[in-house]
Amino acid sequence: MRNKEIAVAAVFLMMSILCSRIWAHCQIPCGIYDDPARFNSMLENVQTIEKSIKQIESLSTEKVQNWNQLVRWIDNKEVHADKLAETVTYYFMAQQIKPLDAADDAVREKYVREVTLLHEILFNSMKAKQNTALKYCTKLRELILQFRQSFLGE
């Protein structure tokens, strides 16, 4: 009986840890949204990815390698790429972009444009995570600004 209680407690603890990683927004219908703040956060994530890439490139060319710092910058780049992906997935796609049910061509066009932009942001955040090409940061900024313009109507 005691082993069963320990196993249940261990599973509960693991689930708590895994669920705490979802930071973008709760998934209850609270109605508390700050879309401009999300866009600012996304752009800050891109800026952090870009800085991380530059630091990785710089540290990689030094004669005496500082492996600790190099690993920390790589991890930082990946964390911010993941944050960007989580905002796209859990905030915008799961909560803000509602499944299309309108027959209106303009509504359909906006929906397709925004879902396509979100998918491109997600794809490019993955590419930024996989390598150190700054072109993905440039592309991410462009896509985020296009999405912001479409979503907020700026």
Q: Which key terms come to mind for this protein?
A:
single chain, 154 residues, mainly alpha, 5 helices
Would you kindly provide a brief summary of this structure?
Helices cover 77% and strands 0% of the residues. The chain has 154 residues and is an all-alpha fold.
Determine the fraction of residues in helical runs and give it as a percent range: over 70%
Count of individual helical segments:
5
Characterize the overall form: elongated
Largest sheet properties: none
Structural class: mainly alpha
* Termini separation: 61 Å
Q: Please state the average pLDDT score.
A: 85
Strand content: under 5%
- What is the H/E string? HHHHH
Uncertain residue ranges: 10-24
The number of strands is: 0
Task: Indicate the radius of gyration in whole angstroms.
Answer: 19 Å
